[in-house]
Write a structure and sequence with these properties.
21% strand, Rossmann fold, single chain, alpha/beta, 31% helix
Length: 355
């Protein structure tokens, strides 16, 4: 049987065509009681927000326009910092969407969210990463030429799987972009840990979130092992790996998911035979439109993730966005915005000191 089509056939026949479209359960233990050692955040906008734009967190191999040789390209992030004297700040890393075709860290809705959290005491970081737009042109290439073209950008087994199961060059590139995006977002998180002291970040209070493709990467970032999407390629094939703070590790406290899926983890499992879910995974907040009709991000993706978390006994909260489709940034629930709902979840589950 075709391996690709055998993986949860009700859904994963759409695995490599992201290009086309783009409650609560409880863990037995309660969160730690807040102490004076925990970060203090504000219930409302208090602080002015300082911003550092286009900070390089790593380099990654990519293709510039119609070039035939991959070049080291800076990968960038924006940092939103509360203008206060705190030496003990939580951090929130956010990953934009775009179906792995494109997208931007400076999407207006992300900027609004960044200012919401930074003005309340978080260091908020919005990250760009490599997408299909950075992967050149492979139309007309033989499989051997494609494998050589993407050597160092994705592992050989990932390339081989894509070549075997994708039905078009576009699908191949989307699959390669999914790997590169994960490698980059992991590098961004390691950069945060490496530079935490400079921004007075408390790395015991890391939140990672994303929307659409960014939520796909968020789930994979929180669930996968630290070596995944990193050790499959050597620094011989990808010298830019040496710029990604390889010696750093991280512990994600909370994940915030907007209208995504766990499709990347299923692709990882199909290629490597490794299921990475376990009961040590980060707690999860999900907001998803009940009328989302994108093939890889239907509302059933959220309920499936909730079921996985329930079975593992990990605290999670699913907020259905009734009647909303994909990209429901303006949705409200009981008068609360997505930022309000996320704030409540993070503060309660991380038991931050709130003033």
């Amino acid at each position: 049987m075709n391996t690709f089509k055998s993986i949860q056939n009700h859904k994963l026949s759409y695995l490599l065509i992201f290009i086309v479209f783009l409650l609560p359960a409880c863990r037995d233990e309660e969160p730690t009681i807040p102490t004076n050692d925990m970060p203090i955040v504000k219930n409302e906008t208090i602080y002015s927000v300082l911003k550092e734009e286009d900070v390089t967190y790593a380099n990654g191999l990519s293709y510039n326009g119609t070039s035939t040789t991959a070049e080291a390209t800076p990968q960038l992030l924006d940092i939103y910092i509360p203008d206060n004297n705190s030496k003990n700040r939580p951090v929130y890393l956010f990953i934009h969407g775009g179906g792995f075709q494109g997208g931007t860290k400076s999407k207006p809705e992300i900027i609004n969210m960044a200012n919401y959290f930074a003005s309340r005491g978080w260091v908020f970081i919005s990250v760009d990463y490599r997408t299909v737009s950075d992967l050149g042109t492979i139309s007309g290439m033989t499989p051997e030429e494609v494998a050589m073209f993407y050597n160092g950008i994705a592992p050989q087994e990932w390339i081989d799987f894509s070549l075997l199961n994708a039905s078009s060059p576009d699908e191949i590139q989307t699959s390669i972009a999914m790997y590169a995006a994960q490698r980059d977002t992991k590098a961004a998180l390691r950069w945060i840990v490496a530079n935490a002291e400079d921004y007075h970040i408390n790395t015991d209070f890391i939140t990672v979130g994303g929307a659409s493709a960014g939520a796909v990467s968020t789930v994979a970032l929180g669930i996968s092992n630290q070596e995944d999407f990193k050790d499959e390629i050597s620094t011989v094939d990808d010298p830019t790996l040496s710029t990604t703070n390889l010696d750093e590790s991280y512990n994600i406290k909370s994940m915030i998911y907007f209208w995504g899926s766990n499709v990347k983890l299923e692709l990882f499992e199909a290629i490597y035979g490794l299921n990475r879910y376990d009961n040590n995974d980060p707690e999860l907040f999900l907001a998803h439109g009940t009328e989302d009709i994108n093939p890889t991000t239907t509302f059933s993706e959220a309920t499936e993730l909730k079921e996985i978390y329930d079975e593992l006994g990990i605290y999670n909260q699913l907020v259905p966005l009734e009647g909303a489709g994909h990209g429901a940034w303006s949705a409200t629930v009981d008068g609360k915005s997505l930022s309000d709902l996320s704030f409540d979840f993070i503060v309660e589950r991380q038991n931050l000191n709130v003033e």
